[in-house]
Amino acid sequence: MSIRALRLSARRWRKPASIARISNRWVISTTLGYRIVPVIARVKPGFHLRLNKAEVDATFEVPLAFLMDQTNVQRHSREWQGMTRHYYAITFGERYIWGVTAGILRNLYDRIYR
């Protein structure tokens, strides 16, 4: 990702005072060709999100310890466009975190613990 693209994405992500950005230094490439820059941040208790309903239906919180416990991470595969695709998935209560989101969390685990 270019420095210009990083600056532009930083401008779009307006950081409230209750959020401390920790990292946004790696890029995830998806099978569809998208490039995603995950942003890791510490959020102070009591922070309230204002969702852009055109982009996000809902949010929920999951303890980091749960996400980093690899017994909660599953690897699945599906046939898509004539190829077998592998992806990670995490079930938290009635929530199902999968695909790129679960892959980003697995990548975070690898960066911290491996």
Report what the structure shows.
- With 114 residues, the protein is of the alpha+beta class.
- It has two domains: 1-44, no CATH class; 60-114, no CATH class.
- Helices cover 26% and strands 31% of the residues.
- The chain contains three helices and seven strands, in the order αββββαβββα.
- The chain has helices at residues 3-12, 64-68, 99-113; strands at residues 19-23, 28-29, 35-36, 40-43, 73-80, 83-92, 95-98.
- The protein has a three-stranded antiparallel beta sheet with strand order 5-6-7.
- β5 and β6 form a beta hairpin.
- The mean pLDDT is 83.
Task: Please give the structural blueprint.
Layout (H helix, E strand, L loop, with lengths): L2 H10 L6 E5 L4 E2 L5 E2 L3 E4 L20 H5 L4 E8 L2 E10 L2 E4 H15 L1
Antiparallel strand pairs: 1-4, 2-3, 5-6, 6-7
The first-to-last residue Cα distance is 24 Å
Q: Which percent range describes the beta-strand content?
A: 25-35%
- The count of helical stretches stands at 3
Roughly what percent helix? 25-40%
**Number of structural units classed as domains:** 2
Q: Can you count the beta strands? A: 7
H/E topology pattern: HEEEEHEEEH
Task: Name the features.
alpha+beta; globular; single chain; two-stranded antiparallel sheet; 114 residues; 2 domains; 3 helices; 3-stranded antiparallel beta sheet
